Amino acid sequence: MKMAEQTYANTQDTGDKNAQGNRNTGGESDILRQRLQRLQDDVEGLARDVNAIGRGQAARGREAAQETGRRLEHRARENPMATLAITLIGGLIVGLLLGERHGGSR
Prior knowledge:
mainly alpha, transmembrane, membrane, DUF883 domain-containing protein, transmembrane helix
């Protein structure tokens, strides 16, 4: 009978320890949940910041490209012959480069 009583006492003790362990794990789970939530909030904030910076950079790039286009158009209207000569020379160079790349001289 003593052995049965000892086995019962051991299972009770193990059950108490498991219950206590589960309570501790529950507390640890709450801490992990809170940390995970803070991390998620930080990542979301960082994503918003990066998005805002990207939009600002895109707007500045767009403005710079438009300004460059306006300046080029103004210069082309002031000097149409120079514009034509530059365009013809550029086309000739591109044609020669592509011709060599796709079969060379015949």
